[in-house]
Amino acid sequence: MMLEDGDKRAVGSRVVKVLVHRRDDRGMSLEPYASRCVRRGEVHELVTTDHHDTTPGARVDRVAFLGFVEIANAGVIDRGDEVWCDGGLVGTVLGFDACHHPNHYNILISTPTPRTGPELGLRPEMGVVFSPAVVPAV
Residue ranges of the DUF6917 domain (predicted)? Predict the structure, then answer.
């Protein structure tokens, strides 16, 4: 079996705007891509969901909005990456919705319960890191 992915660096970012709303009928659509490249200075939206289906085009309705982050260093964000806010694990990247692209991506984060920015204590300038999930050795 050939491995497709090698090691990568984490992608750092900072909160630029905290969002407070949630929806049960959002109608986001998962992009067919398991990863997206991001550039330093780009701004992307973070959205939590308890949705689990990663089928391309899957409809995502139950969401809560965390906020917008500015990317601090270029890199690759992959499905399954861990999302850390101020040192605490928020969830893992489920995928991407491009309804606002090229302005920004919605980065969908899988969590047990959709949570808003204030519910997680987000504040402007708080650090958010997308890091490769640690796979236990077998």
Answer: 6-130
